[in-house]
Design a protein that fits this description.
Elements lengths: L3 H26 L6 H4 L4 H7 L3 E13 L6 H7 L7 E16 L3 E4 L1 H4 L4 E5 L5 E3 L1 E6 L4 E5 L23 E6 L7 E12 L10 E4 L11 E4 L4 E8 L10 E5 H12 L7 E2 L2 E5 L2 H7 L7 E6 L4 H5 L6 E5 L2 E2 L3 H9 L6 E8 L2 E8 L1 E2 L9 E2 L9 E5 L2 H7 L8 E6 L4 H4 L7 E5 L2 E2 L3 H8 L4 E8 L2 E8 L1
Antiparallel strand pairs: 1-2, 1-4, 2-3, 3-7, 4-5, 6-7, 8-9, 8-11, 9-10, 10-13, 11-12, 12-13, 14-21, 15-16, 16-17, 17-18, 17-19, 19-20, 22-23, 23-24, 24-25, 25-26, 25-27, 27-28
């Protein structure tokens, strides 16, 4: 056995022998730049290549403004909510950003940047300005597609990145026009993928980034290090209105499918899935015998729809769509929305402990039953309401659950009986005098010839009822 002095001498000798090896390893873990080229590492070459494809978008819209007097609660107390005071017109201007995604001048931006605009002007990075035409817009995913005519010139554009290839931690740069100061570049990383619950948009699966995004960046580009478009910057989380490092971008795969649909010339059409479900929480997972929460529990399947024909059943748990995990209904909608009509999606489901693979043929939402848009008249409480039969196609247009059926109110004529009884656009008409309403024809028949009416409506998931005598 070595004595303590001998052990100390042995350790010292080993340290001397291994010292050069440790000296070689340590600098490799953290070291100063070894050459001028390493000192000069920069994002500038990337920015110089991609920035010309990011544009500024300026819009004008005409707004009608009512005098503040007529919105005063004291005034309303005497004249009622239905009184319409004099209005004046004003020109409202706004700004945002956009991305050229085709050399022919096709541009993607956010819907909220151009919504309601009467004039859209696009300014290129070289300061040239062009009037833009709106090809299509979709408020459900907050995307709009524009086109400018550059006289046959081939414009710089950004190719799409496959957003499914992105990873948390990847470096990205954000390019846009924050606060109207001019084109600005910020850098960060991808902080998270598949974020849902951001606002009330449909088909959510946002890319989260800490690259600084501010008002005016909306519609701008989130770019990867290989110079491709990872997403369209669209929202921020902020308590002050400025960036705090939590920004969100629409993934490029959803942007690409939306652009393809718009350029096909029939507006923006998304595949219809035909099923509804809920997030599998820890309590639901325990009841289903799952080892952990995850997936979407199917609660309803539209008869004869794509999911029904594929064999999906209520009680199934959707685990993946095209091999990608889904953990909430928005995730399923996003995965389906990134595909095109006519394609087939593969879903993996759990049914009574067994995993099954189902192939879903993706089709356009059908117009069944025909909407039969009708403006109601006569001496009855719903006179002045424009109503229609709900179909999957109409529900999709309105941004509501495509499994909804029945009769929906589209709009209300000012000053009409329906407005006086506070019926609103979007209300579902459920019953008239205790009888269910399934079609517009049934509604017209039930309203006709009665001397009193008890109307049951559904609004935001709640039932409302009022009774009226002739």
């Amino acid at each position: 056995m070595l004595t303590p002095p001998a052990l100390i001498r042995l350790v010292a000798a080993i340290a001397v022998l291994l010292g050069p090896a440790f000296a070689d390893v340590a600098p490799a873990q953290q070291r100063v730049p070894a050459s001028r080229s390493e000192i000069q590492l920069s994002f500038a070459p990337l920015v110089q290549r991609v920035a010309p494809a990011v544009v500024n978008v300026y819009t004008r819209r005409v707004e009608r403004v009512e005098s503040p007097l007529f919105n005063d609660p004291f005034f309303r107390r005497f004249f009622g909510d239905q009184f319409q005071g004099p209005t004046r017109e004003r020109i409202a201007q706004s700004l945002g950003s956009g991305v050229i995604i085709d050399a022919d001048g096709v541009i993607v931006t956010n819907n909220h940047v151009v919504e309601g605009a009467t004039e859209i002007v696009v300014a290129l990075a070289d300061r040239r300005e062009f009037e833009a035409s709106l090809i299509a817009a979709d408020s459900r995913v907050d995307l709009a597609i524009l086109r400018i005519d550059a006289g046959g010139e081939s414009l710089p554009f950004l190719p799409f990145k496959d957003s499914d290839d992105l990873n948390v931690g990847d470096l990205v740069v954000a390019i846009g026009n924050p606060f109207g100061v001019g084109q600005t570049v910020t850098q960060g990383i991808i902080s998270a993928l598949g974020r849902t619950g951001v606002g009330d948009l449909d088909a959510q699966s946002f890319i989260q980034t800490d690259a600084a995004i501010n008002p005016g960046n909306s519609g701008g580009a989130l770019v990867t290090m290989d110079g491709k478009l990872a997403g369209i910057n669209t929202a921020i989380f902020s308590r002050s209105g400025g960036s705090i490092g939590i920004g969100f971008a629409i993934p490029s795969n959803l942007v690409a499918s939306t652009v393809a649909s718009a350029l096909a010339g029939k507006g923006i059409k998304r595949p219809w899935f035909g099923a509804h479900g809920e997030t599998v929480t820890s309590d639901i997972a325990l009841g289903l015998g799952l080892s952990r929460p995850g997936g979407v529990l199917v609660s309803e399947v539209y008869p004869g729809g794509p999911a029904d024909r594929a064999g999906l059943r209520p009680g199934d748990v959707i685990l993946t769509v095209d091999g990608r995990e889904v953990n909430d209904p928005q995730g399923v909608k996003f995965r389906i929305a990134t595909r095109r009509i006519g394609e087939t999606a593969t879903i993996e489901v759990l049914r009574r402990g067994q995993r099954l693979r189902l192939s879903v043929a993706l089709v356009e939402a059908p117009e069944t039953p025909p909407r039969d848009v009708t403006t109601l008249g006569g001496n009855q409480p719903l006179a002045g309401a424009t109503v229609a039969n709900l179909s999957p196609a109409l529900a999709d247009e309105l941004g509501i659950d495509t499994l909804e059926t029945g009769v929906i109110v589209l709009e209300i004529a000012p000053g009409s009986p329906a407005q006086r009884f506070r019926v609103r656009g979007g209300d579902r008409i459920i019953q008239i005098n205790g009888r269910d309403v399934r079609t517009v024809q049934e509604l017209v028949s039930l309203l006709r010839g009665a001397s009193q009416w008890t109307v049951v409506l559904r609004r935001n998931g709640q039932l409302l009822q009022f009774s009226v005598r002739a």
